[in-house]
Amino acid sequence: MPLRIVFCGTPAFAVPSLRHLIAQPDIQVEGVVTQPDRPRGRGQVLAHPAVKIAALEAGLAVYQPEKIRAEAAFDYFQRVAPDAVVIIAYGQIIPPPLLAVPRLGWINLHASLLPKYRGAAPINWAIANGDTRTGLTTMQIDAGLDTGPALLTFETPIGPDETAPELAARLADAGAPLVVETLRQLHRGKIVPAPQDNAQATHAPPLKKEDGRIDWSLPAPQIHNRMRGFAPWPGAFTSFRGKSCHLWGRPVSQPDIAAHFKAAPTGAIPSPGAILTAAGELWAACGQSTALAIEFIQLEGRKQITAREFANGARLAPSDRFGS
Q1: Strands (E), 55-170
Q2: Right CATH number for 209-314 from 3.10.25.10, 3.90.1310.10, 3.90.700.10, 3.30.530.20?
Q3: Can you point out the beta strands (E) in 90-231?
């Protein structure tokens, strides 16, 4: 007899797992729960969540409660009576009465190696903090924030130039078979849920716009990590001549910095935020005598352009700097 589940999820990150679950002969997806359609874009047209689109393509019934804690939602889960609920980036806190409905619990796929990076933005903060490895954890959710017992894990390196969207796509694909294997082992009684070590827990809070503001006193590698981690939103931004601008770039190697400034009149790198041309590139001085090679710039209200186009159009003066 197939394992009967309900799938809860909303964004594109959850879609590979839903599709993989649908394809399993020993698993029956009885229904899909996702967030209500929301206005998007400049026209504020109502748009389906990515999970709803995938569910409708597969011919599955979709339920979109405004609030999961409402009595109607509780009635829905009691009526379906699934063996387990798979929940991935759904977007609402599940109330305790609902947690008790499925006999195998609510199985969550979280994009970190718990207890590290509990919270809403684990992928972003892992990259922004300069981590070189991350992974996935399946867990049984409880009333806390990502505090439930861990089930299975998957670990992977983070590429030195990998951005948050790129890593998210990789983890979404890797998570699909992990979810299926977790369900099968739970069903067969072959997993012993492992309590998390709360003393080792770290938090990954939701991103705020201000997280993307560049602190030029930081060394260039840290700024680069934040550029990668905060893509596409809030991005990495600063100011130039009193207007906001978004930047993309990469750290300059120490040998290149040494070679350039050894030949410079002062022999020293300028203060953080200073703009200079070096080795045919546009550089921004950063903390600890490091520099960032600027590759692309998007001035407020303008389209993205290359650093060379920016330098040609801005007619840079020696006093110009970022963050002024």
Answers
A1: 62-63, 84-88, 106-110, 133-140, 150-157
A2: 3.10.25.10
A3: 106-110, 133-140, 150-157
| pLDDT tens digits in sequence order for the chain, 324 residues long | 899 999 999 999 999 999 999 999 999 999 999 999 998 877 788 899 999 999 999 999 999 999 999 999 999 999 999 999 999 999 999 999 999 999 999 999 999 999 999 999 999 999 999 999 999 999 999 999 999 999 999 999 999 999 999 999 999 999 999 999 999 999 999 999 999 999 999 999 999 999 999 999 999 999 999 999 999 999 999 999 999 999 999 999 988 888 887 655 555 778 999 999 887 899 999 999 999 999 999 999 999 999 999 999 999 998 999 997
What is the residue type of 1? M
CB-CB contact of 207 with 235 (8 Å): no
**Residue 4 CB neighbour total at 10 angstroms:** 16
- Give the SS3 label for residue 130: coil
C-alpha–C-alpha distance, residues 46 and 97, integer Å? 31
Give Cα 129 to chain centroid, integer Å: 13
Q: Provide φ and ψ at 194, rounded to 5°.
A: -105, 120
SS3 content of the chain, % helix, strand, coil (to 5): 30, 30, 40
